[in-house]
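Intended use. Records such as the AI-2E family transporter entry shown here are meant for training and evaluating sequence-to-structure methods. They are not intended to support clinical decisions.
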Amino acid sequence: MKSNRLSRLRRFRVVLPAKTAGHPAPVSANLDFREAEDTPYGMRLAAWWSWRFLVVVAAVGVLVWLLSKLSLLLIPVMIAALITGLLSPVVHVLNRKLALPRVLSVAITVIAFLALVISGLSMAGQRLTAGFAALWNQAIVGVEQIQTWLFTGPLQLTNADLQNVFDDALRELRSNATNILSEAISWGSALGQILTGVLLALFTLIFLLLDGRKIGLFLINLLPRRARPAMDGAMTRGWSALVSYVRVQLLVAFIDAVGIGFGAFFLGVPLAMPLGIIVFIGSFIPIIGALVTGALAVLLALVANGWVNALIMLGVVLLVQQAESNILQPLIMGKAVSLHPLAVVLAVAGGTMVAGIPGALFAVPIMAVLNAVVKYLARRGWDDDPFVRDQYGVGEDPHAPPEPSTEKSPELLPARERPEHIATED
């Protein structure tokens, strides 16, 4: 006991230096100050989390910057992935149920899809052309009414005032001819990029439908062998979430088109059917699609039936679009992709702020895929996944009966192999 007390006292022993006149006492080298232990634990924990958080934010920022530089390549590939999620069940039915070759199934599906899209656009364009030709006289009457209102209304304009306005507009056009030409050239290059993107998306779509599983296995085989079963199962769940998203988006676009189309029909707006087709196609393009199709519906109502009918049509368009964005999208989409409605709204808003229209288009599917993948990996879903067990022979079958125990009861063992307490009882 005495030795233990002496050892404890030695730990607190401090050697004091000798006093020197006129100089402060130096700190002894035997004093052991530990700066890390002097810092509060909360401060150390906050520092550890802070630098890790900064590293993650920097990595995400660099990744977003790299992806923005590859937008011309990345956007067509992601569009092709979305269309693949829509068409892959059709290819599966043709290939597995009807026993058609894979190449023929893909060819039939892609040709039918392109024919459906082109025929829909062609029909809508023909109806719009014929309708606009019939509305031309009404448009001229509307312009004359506007001129009459300008002359006789509260503005009381004269021909000289209108001529001055036209002259000022021509002068501005001449002074900004260089800027207008550069804008036209930039639009031409943008159209060239759009055409290149369409061809790349079509090419990618064909090969994703044809060899999607092989492409996925090629990427998975780049990982370590132990990580392949888990990642294969996670990516399969992510792909299922993407397919669900595309199907629900198709349903939402159909409801949007039916709402605006029937609203135009009951209000007597001409070209209601082609207008519904255009709204259906435009619903897949965030922000711009809704803006253009809604403006077209209101313009048709204004030209054909006057400003009162146009205001009612504007109310119908705003009602349908607000219901689609605030009710249908969060509720139906959230259930389909296992995301909370608030997460869907925040994902669309954040994607728009970060990447504009492409960000709004791909924010929800990316969130859906990440949600499915992270949940699968977090709960170790590959342990009881039949797909992983069939592909890799790992995991456990939750529906399999329990295996009988191979251990013998101690009473059935020979006397020399029994435990001591059982052997002594005998």
